[in-house]
Here is the input.
Amino acid sequence: MGGAKVDTERLVPLKVAAKRAMSYYLALRAAANLADSKWLFPSFGESGHLTSQHVARDLKAIAAADGRRPDKGNGRAHV
Here is the structure.
């Protein structure tokens, strides 16, 4: 149990503000001449993309910097 979910596709509905932010992000990537990727958030790591653990760690750090207490149950900040 608890094995990796290989090739699991996740669809997430986005509100208008999130769609605008994604368009802006993608335009910035294009303007910076960054290589195209099948990943929305590519990385230089072995997986080729930001992992959920990486995102959780960053959200926890952002929450702490903002004076918020991340969830103590599993060590991940909730959004």
